[in-house]
UniProtKB/TrEMBL annotation:
Pfam families: His_Phos_1 (PF00300). It comes from the Bacteria. One of its GO terms (molecular function) is phosphatase activity. One of its GO terms (cellular component) is cytoplasm. This is Histidine phosphatase family protein. SMART domains: PGAM.
Length: 212
């Protein structure tokens, strides 16, 4: 009989970011108080499930989101660099019009191609590394469930890749809220279902910075 395995991609909780910058891969960005509550709520959502493996992006906010899961399942968390946030040329800047980075002409050249995109890590590369991370998690939890804590853009790109949709998109149309769960279910090595849950909807600001 073919084994059923589910890999849950958990987006981290809300980040303490009073300056409103695109923090990307910058170190030191921790969860806010609401973010810690979201991490606990996500762990409660998973309670009672057959989780046998935990993975996380190396970023602080992801590891802090994983911490309640370590306690819930009494499992170690394995850091997988492939789950990291996408690289972005606007990292460390405020993004948008007005006082944001879009007002400065020296940044406009990075906006020339939204299909790659020209301002950061190519979507195809994100999809490839995230797929590899999911395969690792699937194989580690074969016949059970795994959780991998990652970030909004990588999770969304993997979902679109899995659903055979185009990778370029408008950031405002991503279905990937803070501490939300995108689940991939496999029969053996074959993906049979992609589902989504948002146990923390309505908690915190639920806005953040795109790609966080």
């Amino acid at each position: 009989m073919t084994e059923t395995t589910t890999v849950h991609l958990l987006r981290h909780g809300e980040v303490h970011n009073p300056e409103g910058v695109l923090y990307g891969r910058l170190p030191g960005y921790r969860l806010s108080e609401d973010g810690r509550l979201m991490a606990k709520a996500a762990a409660d959502w998973f309670s009672g499930r057959d989780v046998t493996a935990l993975f996380s992006s190396p970023m602080q906010r992801a590891l802090e989101t994983a911490a309640p899961l370590v306690d819930t399942f009494d499992l170690p968390v394995s850091v997988d660099d492939r789950l990291i946030e996408a690289d972005n040329r606007f990292e460390g800047l405020t993004f948008g019009v007005g006082a944001g980075s879009l007002r400065r002409p020296e940044h406009w050249r990075h906006l020339r191609n939204p299909f790659t995109p020209s301002w950061g890590e190519p979507y195809k590369e994100i999809a490839a590394r995230m797929r590899a991370a999911v395969i690792r998690a699937r194989d580690a939890a074969r016949g059970h469930e795994a959780i991998a804590v990652s970030h909004q853009l990588p999770i969304w790109i993997l979902r679109m890749h899995a659903e055979k949709r185009r990778l370029w998109h408008h950031p405002g149309r991503r279905e990937c809220g803070l501490a939300s769960i995108t689940s991939l279910t496999f029969e053996g090595a074959r993906l049979v279902e992609v589902s989504y849950a948002d146990p923390c909807a309505g908690m915190g600001g639920q806005t953040g910075v795109a790609g966080a």
